[in-house]
């Protein structure tokens, strides 16, 4: 005997609505972008492999997980997961290489927003998103897709430019001098609406091919102290930070210099301190330039190993700047508020997830 089930129209409508309102099967809560429960950031990340040109989800999680994706945080598609799994491993993701993607990770104990920190650029080595870092005194996280740091943009490909336009990147701050710009002019995405020049010229470091590694380190430490004590440099950093505060809104800003490690590294530190990120995390972000720039400056370091400090960053460099700030201003917060004109509360409200 055959049986059929007749579903009343009203019941069918309720059924369809409930299917479209996706829920976390582990907690029965409605799925939406953000962070809940356990901090998953140390056990899950989206990585772009420069060698294989492959984006992958890297997990050291225990238990089941599901990963959703979308071209903006607000458009993450919770209808169809990109990938599901159980436990740790590296899992390739099939996504376009000319568009920015954001991801929501769902587990039984928590959820997290993820994205590539190092952007998949063929023509830049050190272009990174400052999002995803947890603040030291709360459960808030820095917003993805708002503030980016980079080395020079002179060799970006068309695919790179399309990718940056998909963010969309709207404001560019350039810390390079006119001489640097003339040597390597930026290639810019069509999405840009504002270009701000904030040239910081540290002058002659007194280094030549025969300088010792110790002399290079001493010169770099002086450079970092200069960046946070020289009135002209402070003015340029203040001008950059002004682009991220009222009256400006809804900007996706990228700041850069030539290597994206010294002038840019200090700017990134200022932003992360203003957002309440802990100093250890800020130092780790600063030191990431060593891995990202390894290929770019490999030949220079091979030819002049004694000058490697010019092409890398060291913990002592940033520490010297922070010590100088504290000596001159008492605290980092005083420096940010009084010298760089950062309204810290407004800044955090704007660039931290609630």
UniProtKB/TrEMBL annotation:
<dbReference type="InterPro" id="IPR016130">
    <property type="entry name" value="Tyr_Pase_AS"/>
</dbReference>
<keyword id="KW-0732">Signal</keyword>
<feature type="signal peptide">
    <location>
        <begin position="1"/>
        <end position="23"/>
    </location>
</feature>
<dbReference type="InterPro" id="IPR029021">
    <property type="entry name" value="Prot-tyrosine_phosphatase-like"/>
</dbReference>
<dbReference type="InterPro" id="IPR026893">
    <property type="entry name" value="Tyr/Ser_Pase_IphP-type"/>
</dbReference>
<dbReference type="Pfam" id="PF13350">
    <property type="entry name" value="Y_phosphatase3"/>
</dbReference>
<protein>
    <submittedName>
        <fullName>Protein-tyrosine-phosphatase</fullName>
    </submittedName>
</protein>
<dbReference type="GO" id="GO:0004721">
    <property type="term" value="F:phosphoprotein phosphatase activity"/>
</dbReference>
């Amino acid at each position: 005997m055959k049986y059929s089930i007749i579903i009343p129209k009203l019941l069918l409508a309720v059924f369809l609505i409930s299917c479209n309102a996706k829920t976390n099967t582990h907690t029965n809560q409605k799925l939406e972008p953000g962070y809940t429960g356990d901090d998953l950031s140390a056990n899950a990340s989206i990585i772009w492999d420069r060698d294989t040109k492959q984006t992958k989800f890297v997990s050291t999680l225990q238990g089941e997980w599901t990963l959703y994706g979308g071209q903006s945080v607000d458009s993450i598609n919770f209808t169809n997961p990109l990938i599901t799994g159980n436990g740790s491993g590296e899992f390739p993701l099939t996504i376009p290489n000319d568009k920015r993607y954001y991801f929501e990770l769902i587990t039984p104990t928590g959820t997290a927003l993820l994205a590539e920190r190092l952007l998949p650029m063929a023509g830049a080595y050190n272009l990174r998103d400052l999002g995803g870092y947890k603040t030291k005194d709360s459960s808030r996280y820095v917003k993805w897709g708002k503030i980016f740091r980079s080395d020079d943009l002179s060799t970006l490909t068309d695919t790179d430019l399309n990718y940056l336009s998909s963010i969309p990147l709207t404001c560019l701050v350039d810390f390079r001098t006119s001489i640097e710009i003339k040597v390597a002019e930026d290639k810019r995405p069509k999405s840009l609406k504002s270009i701000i020049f904030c040239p910081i010229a540290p002058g002659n470091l007194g280094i030549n091919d025969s300088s010792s590694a110790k002399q290079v380190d001493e010169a770099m430490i002086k450079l970092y102290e200069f960046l946070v004590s020289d009135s002209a440099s402070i003015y340029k950093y203040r001008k950059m930070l002004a682009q991220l505060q009222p009256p400006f809104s809804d900007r996706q800003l990228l700041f850069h210099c030539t290597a994206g490690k010294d002038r840019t590294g200090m700017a990134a530190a200022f932003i992360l301190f203003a957002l309440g990120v802990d100093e250890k995390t800020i130092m780790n972000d600063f030191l990431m330039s060593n891995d990202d720039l390894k290929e770019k400056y490999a030949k220079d370091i091979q030819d002049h190993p004694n000058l490697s400090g010019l092409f890398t960053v060291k913990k002592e460099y940033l520490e010297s700047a922070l010590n100088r700030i504290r000596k001159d201003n008492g605290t980092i917060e005083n420096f940010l508020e009084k010298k760089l004109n950062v309204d810290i509360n407004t800044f955090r409200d704007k660039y931290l997830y609630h």
